[in-house]
């Protein structure tokens, strides 16, 4: 009998998550934002093979993929077909950006949230049978009404049916179309994901996030992913407004109210890149134990990186994305 609630520990990454009821190991992991490697999610491909190290599992879905007896004897199981009976430890691979296949999905507009005359938040819903596999920080291509554009995903991979994107009116044909002609329930074809600006799952260090204008979208996704994985000791967000306002400031404030370990500062991009980088770094004299994830123009990122390295940031702790 599956347990009502059981804890799963994934080796060697050390991630843990909880399985409720009859959920498969894979479903529960993805809901927790842990990107275990998988393919079809329906028992056909064998890409979700893992090894049971300890504990007991129970099959909840039939599968066509044949697990060899010799492998079964070593604990091999398909994570999309089994659930846990009590706490378990498994050995399973975590997917990186290079492991995630290209997908094309016809989504529906669930909501259009106009923020001001220059940007809107677009909420797309995938079919139940075709969820988007992606990592926080990645982008997708959107097409509708003959218009197309590339956008960073602003939502968490832990909700793989609901995709949030921040669409600027003044950039790319899709932006004009979204403001002028897009309505609830319209079809939007999404393809992707692309990009490697993703969170380093093995790090447990405090994280500084730096967003520039709508470069907040991938940062928002990364923050949500970091929260669901509980990977960071603490999080600091600096959001620089240049051509746009801090368009989701209320959301950021609600995070700061809800979390003890989350601080933020809203800054105006009203100085040169070197001065702005100094403003971001002013409260962090020693970055030895930090990771930085930053979006912005190349010149600003260069200044920020140089300033951070001068404050002892490890080169491996720097993650910049030019927007
Ligand atoms: S994901 Fe294809 S068999 Fe499990």
Hetero groups in this structure are: FE2/S2 (inorganic) cluster
State the name of the first-level CATH class of the largest domain: Alpha Beta
Assign the CATH topology of the largest domain. Rossmann fold
Number of domains: 3
Total strand segments: 16
Helix segment tally: 7
Rg, rounded, reads 21 Å
Q: Helix content range of the residues, please?
A: 10-25%
Residue windows where pLDDT falls under 50 for at least 5 positions: none
* CA-based shape: globular
What is the arithmetic mean of pLDDT?
A: 93
Structural class: alpha/beta
Amount of beta strand: 25-35%
Major sheet details: 6 strands, antiparallel
Helix and strand element order: EEHEHEEEEEEEHEEHEHEHEHE
The order of strands across the largest sheet is 9-8-11-6-7-10
